[in-house]
Amino acid sequence: MAAAITSRKSRIFSWLMFDFANTSFSVMMVTFAFPLYFKNVICNGASSGDAIWGASISISMLLVALISPVLGAQADYSGRRKRFLFAFTLVSVIATALLSLSGPGNVLPAAALFILANIGFEGGLVFYDAYLPEIASRRSLGRVSGYGFAMGYLGAFAILLLLQPMLSRGIVLSNMPNLKFSFLVVALFFALFSAPLFLVLRDTKRRQPARDGDRGADGFVESLFRSVREVGHTIRNIMSYPDLSRFLIAYFFYNDAILTVIAFSSIYAQNTLGFTTGELIVFFMTVQTTAILGSVVFGFVTDRIGPKRTIVITLFIWFCVIFMAILSVNKHIFMITGLLAGMSMGSSQAASRSLMARLTPKEHITEFFGFYDGSFGKASAVVGPMVFGIVSAQAGSQKVALASLLVFFGIGLLIMTGVRTSTTSGGEDEQDELPTVGS
């Protein structure tokens, strides 16, 4: 018994360490340093830099949205989930390291490398998240999911603290050697702290025994086509899971707004409120601190009152965040807004992952997480930034563009209230048995 508990704890810890590792990429390469470097250094401050940056994010997210369900089904069928995760992680690490070679004028090569790096990062989350229901009991899904996001934000805080000296000088003075080296550090950080997962966790058994025809190149192609057919079957039958369908649609809208806030937060703070680079570093480190707190606290809240109610609460908090950001007249108010945003960001994402794990059929866990992280999660990141950019350009105000996100939060909240489950002792409607896909 003691050995089983120790083994379970080691599996959970190795899973958490991957969140610690990969969030360094998110905060540095997507949210903070590389967006500013891309526009100010690579694009030489040209106004077209915003458009190219937005297009790079949209293209990478769209590609992940298209391939995630198929690869998720393939991982479920073959039982090679860890191998897929390793491949995507390796792509992200190598592409991030190569970005340290970019410089002024390397617009298209840098954009292409970022697209590859982001595909590796975002695509890997499909296989990573699918481990959650395997390593955690149903009663602890909320807590373990919350711990994961807390570890992620702790990793973001750690990388910001580690790189603070070179970032403070690098972006302000366009000190390219410092900035380039920081991207290499991110790649090494990602690789080093993701290693425990690959050493501890094991691939699950394939859904069906291997056949002679499954071996070799022809067998791989056949299994891939089988996965495509299975995804098509899932799409045709997904309406058999009305609560899951409603949740995914709701998630599409409110996650759209959350990802847009993340993608444009540094640009909004700098362009609209005049934040310096040093102030931005302090701001993001502060946000990570409250995100850690929100992830842990709301993880317990999720297990107590259920993920649906927790998500509804966090969406109301997001409404407050948007209104406060729009009404911010100075940096101090925006700093306070960031504290609230960090708390709601960690809690809403952790509760969403917990609810998805509860509603997903076990035998299609990676495939359905492919829809969650891919088709619905990443496709939403294509729409939100595009709408934000168009509204900002037409209105000539980033505050008006920020206000447009209230529509996405509102639609998500409205649909979320229609998600139904059956009663358990956990305090919320919840299913005792996971549904299965009909043959």
Which properties best describe this structure?
439 residues, disordered C terminus, 81% helix, globular, mainly alpha
Describe the structure.
With 439 residues, the protein is mostly helical. Helices cover 81% and strands 0% of the residues. The chain has helices at 2-31, 33-42, 48-78, 81-98, 107-129, 132-135, 141-173, 176-200, 216-237, 242-273, 277-305, 307-327, 331-359, 365-395, 398-416. The protein is globular, with a radius of gyration of 21 Å. Residues 170-174, 209-216 and 423-439 have low confidence and may be disordered.
Topology:
Blueprint: H1 2-31, H2 33-42, H3 48-78, H4 81-98, H5 107-129, H6 132-135, H7 141-173, H8 176-200, H9 216-237, H10 242-273, H11 277-305, H12 307-327, H13 331-359, H14 365-395, H15 398-416
Q: Give the terminus-to-terminus CA distance.
A: 37 Å
CATH superfamily name?
MFS general substrate transporter like domains
Unreliable sequence segments: 170-174, 209-216, 423-439
Beta-strand content estimate: under 5%
Question: What is the name of the CATH architecture?
Answer: Up-down Bundle
Task: Describe the main β-sheet briefly.
Answer: none
CATH class: Mainly Alpha
- How much helix, percentage-wise, in residues? over 70%
